[in-house]
Amino acid sequence: MIHNVAQGVQSFTSNAFLVEGERTVLVDAGASFDAVSAIEERVESLDAVVLTHTHPDHVGNLADVVAAFDAPVYGFDTTQDGVERELGDEDTVAMGDHEYVALHTPGHKNDHICLYAADAGVLFAGDLIFQNGSFGRTDLEEGDRDALIRSIDRVADRVDADLQALHPGHGPSIENDPYSHIELSGKMARQA
């Protein structure tokens, strides 16, 4: 089961997805809300936190979550504050009841990864791909439009066209033909 513990929060935050199952994992910690209480409403413990990237809106609650649950933090770049364990390109991590592969997808931020479980048909897209052709900003430090386009193309090539769910870093999750949103994001990023 996947639940966005940041759903309904009225402050600037990323989504924070609780992936329940054999290994309970939080994908991104969000910011500016009581993530610990939101997590405790659903589970008693966390096995890990996995970060799609380390922008403040994705890691603002990280210290509180780690203090409350003593969970190790995985991310692409262990030189970033809070990231304890490296999750390199093509490395796998167990989340819920599935194995997810980390895909290094820079363009929005250098340490950005997407997480994909082919058997579950689930993609955590971070701030690379959003609904309706939206895509991650490239006007921030480390932003690079050409790299972002290559990253979207990589995800489009890697993910099965029968993808079941796309969980972005912001906005609603997409469960109705999510692959078409990946394709549209690639087209829109080229036109912008």
From TrEMBL:
Keywords: Hydrolase, Metal-binding, Zinc
Record domain Metallo-beta-lactamase: where: 13-170
SUPFAM superfamilies, A to Z: Metallo-hydrolase/oxidoreductase
Cofactor: Zn(2+)
Record protein name field: Glyoxylase, beta-lactamase superfamily II
Parts of the chain that traverse the membrane: none
Superkingdom of the source species: Archaea
GO MF term set: hydrolase activity; metal ion binding
Annotated Pfam families: Lactamase_B
